[in-house]
């Protein structure tokens, strides 16, 4: 049976998972910035593992919020549930939901920064390929000579 405390515990675990995702995203950004591409693969695997956990927690949260909302006769939203609760239960659930919202915003911010860095690296790679092709056209290969390295 769903309870405010159980829902709060799931929200807290979900916030923890999202903070872990944000931490890995920061590590990915630093690895990309420092050219440590071998580390990126490990970080992608870690991101995927934590992502599966976060998704399972999201499903659990949705189910639990739905059950609790049905018991209270309201929408399955934390704000609606809190309106129906009294005292410490409402305050604790609101506080936990606020921590989750902060974790979501932090993760979104980190993902946006990483996406910008990836886009920048793609543009730089494209420019380098275009320049290489241009140079290759200016200096066609002669037998026995390879300018590609």
What are the main properties of this structure?
149 residues, mainly alpha, 0% strand, 4 helices, single chain
Structure notes:
- By secondary structure, the chain is an all-alpha fold.
- Helices cover 84% and strands 0% of the residues.
- The protein has 4 helices and no strands.
- The longest helix has 52 residues.
- It is elongated.
- The mean pLDDT is 88.
Q: Which H/E pattern describes the elements?
A: HHHH
- Radius of gyration from the alpha-carbon trace, in angstroms: 24 Å
User: What is the molecular shape?
Assistant: elongated
Backbone structural class: mainly alpha
Instruction: Give the CA-CA distance, first to last residue.
Output: 67 Å
Poorly predicted segments: none
Q: Helical segment tally?
A: 4
Strand content: under 5%
The chain-level mean pLDDT equals 88
Estimate the helix proportion, in percent. Answer: over 70%
Largest sheet: none
Number of strands: 0
Which secondary structure elements does this structure contain, and how are they paired or packed?
Layout (H helix, E strand, L loop, with lengths): L3 H30 L3 H36 L5 H7 L2 H52 L11
Helix pairs in contact: 1-2, 1-4, 2-3, 3-4
How would you summarize what this structure contains?
The protein is mostly helical.
């Amino acid at each position: 049976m769903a309870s405010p405390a159980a829902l709060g515990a799931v929200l807290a675990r979900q916030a923890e998972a999202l903070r872990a995702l944000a931490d890995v995203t920061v590590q990915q950004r630093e690895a990309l910035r420092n050219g440590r591409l071998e580390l990126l693969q490990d970080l992608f695997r870690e991101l995927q593992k934590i992502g599966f956990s976060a998704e399972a927690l999201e499903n659990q949260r949705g189910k639990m919020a739905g059950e609790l909302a049905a018991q209270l006769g309201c929408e399955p939203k934390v704000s609606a549930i809190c309106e129906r609760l009294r005292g410490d239960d409402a305050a604790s659930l609101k506080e936990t939901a606020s921590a989750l919202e902060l974790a979501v915003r932090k993760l979104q911010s980190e993902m946006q920064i990483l996406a910008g860095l990836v886009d920048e690296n793609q543009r730089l790679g494209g420019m380098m390929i275009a320049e290489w092709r241009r140079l290759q056209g200016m200096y066609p290969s002669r037998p026995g000579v390879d300018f590609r390295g």
